[in-house]
Amino acid sequence: MRNSPCSFSIRWDNRCLLWVVIALPAISLLSFLDYVHSEKIISNRLKVPERPHLVTDALAKGQSIYYFGLGSNMSRKKIENRDINGTKIEIINMEAAFVPNYRLAFNMRGFPPIEPGMGSLEPVDSCAKALLTYEAGECHGALIQLTPENYERVMRSEGVGNGQSDQGYEEIVVDAYPYGQSQSPVKAIALRARDHVRLNYDPCPSARYMSILREGAEELGLRQSYQEFLKGHPVEILTRGQRKQAIFNIFFMFSLSSVLKWRGLSQLQSRILFFFYTSDSSRKLRKSLSATIIALILLPGSLMGLVLYHMLELLGKTPDSAKRIFDLLDKDYQ
Fold first, then answer.
1. Is residue 3 part of a domain?
2. How many domains does one find in the chain?
3. CB atoms within 10 A of CB 20
4. Higher confidence at residue 29 or residue 329?
5. What band does 84 get if pLDDT is binned at 50, 70 and 90?
6. Helix axis angle, 207-220 to 224-232, nearest 10°
7. Does one domain contain both 20 and 67?
8. Which domain holds residue 34?
9. 282 CB-near residues (< 8 Å, 6+ apart)
10. Residue 62 resides in a domain
11. Is the per-residue pLDDT at 26 higher than 60?
12. Positive or negative CA dihedral for 9, 10, 16, 19?
């Protein structure tokens, strides 16, 4: 008697689950060993990034600096509230502009599945693979003129210029062309992901992050074709349960990092997550299996985060910043 499709499916699912149970600890161990080895190499190789002369000269002379914002900083409200001390950042001028021969990339290593990749400016001829490219080979965004003091405040909010060797972004000088002007380009500073956090492909940005970019592009009045490009870009869509699990896990991992004064565990978890993460939603079986494995990886941290959050809530000691992040990340984005 032939086996029914149902019995085959059950055996196949059990076989997959068995492989997951066997492979997950092995891959975690290999990732840990690879992480330790990589950290030794990175710590020996990384130096505090040398800032461009355009920046150091302007800071020394008290001259204004042009900054090209391509992500959430396309929104005036967002950039005005970027200061880590909560004071308003004053903008001298802000206008739409584009930078040729560069593209909007999402290849700065994030934390899948909730924020897989963050925005970065990437040369169009680099080896990083894009999910979707803008045909004109340009990156459009906000050309923002800032005083030296306010420029530094924006950079500090991005983790730049703080004297840390492991900062994620580096400042690069680009030629930015303001809309509707035929004059020479403006020399501006943009941010590119550094080697140790730069992926060789673009994972899907989160729907939350992309919604901020789309709103900023509309607010700035960016070229309609570029706005259509942003609207058509693939995004990571999560269920409410998946978002909740990821948020509580991040809360626990960040809390643990702040207590230990060491981010190694969260970085290791990110490395393991990226081993299983896929942006390819067209391959439904692979995507489903990826989501299942990621849920298993996040389960211990999310449970600990859930307990920790509610304990702090009962004691009335939940940080306001944590509440804002939970409210923000838990919103539904389509």
1. no
2. 2
3. 15
4. 329
5. confident
6. 170
7. no
8. 15-42+238-329
9. none
10. yes
11. no
12. negative
Which of 211, 232, 253 marks a domain boundary? 232
283-299 mean pLDDT: 91
Write down the mean pLDDT value for the chain.
Answer: 85
**What confidence category does residue 90 fall into, taking pLDDT thresholds of 50, 70 and 90?**
very high
Q: Which residues fall within 8 angstroms of residue 18, CB to CB, at 6 or more apart?
A: none
pLDDT in tens, 98-118: 999 999 999 999 999 999 999
The answer to whether residues 206 and 292 touch, using CB atoms and an 8 Å cutoff, is: no
Phi, psi for residue 273 in degrees, rounded to 5: -60, -40
Tell me the CA distances in angstroms from 71 to 158, 195, 251, 297, one per residue in order.
12, 19, 24, 29
Same domain, 171 and 193: yes
- Crossing angle for the helix pair 240-260 and 320-329, to the nearest 10 degrees: 150
227 and 242 inside one domain:
no
| pLDDT given at position 6 | 41
Angle CA 4–8–14, to nearest 5 = 145
- Catalogue the E-assigned strands of the chain: 65-69, 93-100, 102-111, 115-123, 138-146, 169-178, 186-193
Residue 212 confidence (pLDDT): 93
Kindly state whether residue 6 falls inside one of the protein's structural domains: no
Q: Give the integer Cα–Cα distance in Å for 165 and 49.
A: 7
The residue to which tokens 């896990």 are assigned: 249
Backbone angles phi, psi at 142, to 5 degrees: -105, 125
pLDDT of 286 > 60? The answer is: yes
